Amino acid sequence: MARNPQRRALLADAGLRVLAAAGARGLTHRAVDAEAGVPTGTASNYFPTRDALLGALGERVFERYAPDEAVLARLAAREPSVDLTTDYVRYIVERTTREPYVTRALVELRLEAARHPELGRGLAEVLRRGYADDVTFHAAAGLPGGAFEIALLHYAVDGLLLDLLTTSIDAGFDVDEVVSALVSRLVGGAAPRPGAAGD
């Protein structure tokens, strides 16, 4: 039976909200149906097992993170520099904090994946592909740094998002100032390294 992609997306978004609010233990097909406002049994028709549901939520997170092509075009029109890299990272932080429940759901998925190898393998593949794509994009854009610096930025931004969207250390620093400092210190001294995806 054909599946309606709009209904699938509606259910996945509802699942992300449930996961963010109630954690993995609260994520059930019935809870997703209730959150989406659809008849009981709808979610299980689209995602027959819990693993299928969790996998679909992982895919949906990254669909929700997809950048606006017009914003990317404006950024790409500029000369490569640390300032441009900073603005790319600012845009990442903006996209991942715009609807906090999406990133909170990803945190829950990563924790659940650490406990369930099958989910872990699928999510790890998505995360590794995202990192590799970032390295390739960075090199093609001629931005300073390479694979190592992009890994450092991933680690740093993941920590920043965890602090912003969960219980915070509440250090009182401006997020924009933090992003500027992270990029400056992590990639500011690195030269552009085209082809760094193979590092």
Which key features would you list for this structure?
mainly alpha; 10 helices; disordered C terminus; 199 residues
Provide structural commentary.
There is one protein chain. The chain is mainly alpha-helical. It is 73% helix and 0% strand. Helix 1 (5-26) crosses helix 2 (29-36). The protein starts with a helix and ends in a 12-residue tail after the last helix. Mean pLDDT is 91; it is low at 194-199.
Offer a concise description of the structure.
The protein is mostly helical.
**Share of residues in strands:** under 5%
**Major sheet description:** none
What's the average pLDDT? 91
**Could you tell me how far the N terminus lies from the C terminus, measured between alpha carbons in angstroms?**
45 Å
Number of strands: 0
Order of helices and strands: HHHHHHHHHH
| Approximate shape | elongated
The helix tally amounts to 10
Low-confidence stretches: 194-199
Helix-strand makeup class: mainly alpha
Rg over CA atoms: 18 Å
The amount of helix comes to over 70%
